[in-house]
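Throughout this review, each integer encodes one residue's backbone shape. One record appears below.

===
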Amino acid sequence: MTAASPGAARLAADAAATAGVRIREVAEPGELRELNELFRDIWRPDPGNPPLTEELLRVLAHTGNYVGGAFLGDRLVGAAVGLFAAPATGALHSHITGVGAAARGRSVGFALKLHQRAWALERGLARITWTFDPLVRRNAHFNLVKLGARPARYLPDFYGPMDDHINGGGATDRLLISWELAGEDVEAACAGNPRPAVPPPHAARVLANEDGRPEPEKADAPVVLVDTPADIEGLRTGDPACAALWRERMREALCDRMAGGAAITGFTREGQYVLRTPED
């Protein structure tokens, strides 16, 4: 057990108590079937492309990877699945985390991530990675502010088209998150003291949200702001062309800059990524 893990376990237990759930590892076939059904209900995928299969869940649990479930009474209402990432002694990759409609608004997702963090620290792991859609504002806030994680890379069309209720069948660009489990920002966030970014006065915008549409702006500054849409899921349903334009503009704003060394250092209360260019 690492020195940080006792405190991490306490914070995880406190978060679960606040959410009103019990969180534990899941390994029995019946519970894994329930977990798989929960994910299907959340993502509503094409029948031929489920998020996971019961067989794969069974193998992951059996081989010591992370399969955790959040229970409200006896009902499974949230779950997270992760697997050891190369090198296996250093990191866990959290492949999927979801909370069912019956438990949303209770901070179950936060409790799951803190349970996953404590689990990883107990096994000597230093970080957890995962991917998320950079267009989903609430997920950006959750990952960068509430958890204190930081994006490491921009991954264009990482999964290929995913025809489900959430992704809508378009390109699946993702930000790869690195959660440094004992980092200062992470410790503060997990203790309930998140730090939203406050950009400096000289920050410029390279992508602006103008009446729901993405408008690129030319800027040459060491710190730039990248807006996000207020409701990308609503756009995918109501205005798919605008949603696709947001994907294109976000890729233009982030992909090359991050590949060139720029780093996302935070997320503002107004829904903007703070992107800093390395100084010469």
